[in-house]
Amino acid sequence: MNQQLFTDGKAYERLMGRWSRVAGAAFLDWLDVPKAMRWLDAGCGNGAFTEEIFSRCAPAAVSAIDPSEEQLAYARSRPATRTAEFRVGDAQSLPFADDSFDVGIMALVISFLPEPDKAAAELRRVVRGGGWVATYMWDFAGGGSPVYPLNKAMKSLGWDAALPPNPMASGRQAMQASWEKAGLEFVETEVIRIPVVFSDFEDFWSSTTMPVGPQGKLIDRMSADEKKTLCARLHDEVPAAADGRIAYEAFANAVKGRVPSGS
To answer: Do the domain assignments include residue 142?
Structure first.
């Protein structure tokens, strides 16, 4: 995973953390695993999803990894995650022994991995037989990202839309194929839909152009004139209500499966 895409936990919270938390809550409700489980949060970022695990799932223990020490520092600062074990790590090469967990999760990670099949296999390896392995990711190919209007405007101007390195991995069929290839059983997929709402255009612009992630880092390098052009295009294209609010739907694909018992 590219460690340089997401390093500022506070900025990520405004760009994506608030939306990922809403989607994460829906994802955990759908996953519906028992309480008092040992969880792995692979690619935990700034801890927004880790916090949801604690608040909704009453885990026995949570371990979380991420390639960015800066993101981990923010995650450790969250009061709700104070009992979690955080460490630097790669979802494609997990630093844990076989059968260490009851539940292995990747939240909003798979499209940033060059080898998602390897991550699925690693999650299966570290989760015990009968345990759960799952992930969810914004549907980048289908226009489901919370920053999709920004991607669309950049593309309409003939610019790089700055999608994650592996956007096709977020597809529902691609996720199912990865889980089945890893040898997981009872594989199911789901679409998670959430509202994305900004108070006005300024809120939308300042939030979605934060200098984190592929889009934000690209915009940060633009000239003043290029930023002005992009802002004008977005102002014309994003859906604004009579009161100035901007609201649209974001959606993510999710997959879950069970590790075969006795494996």
So the answer is: yes
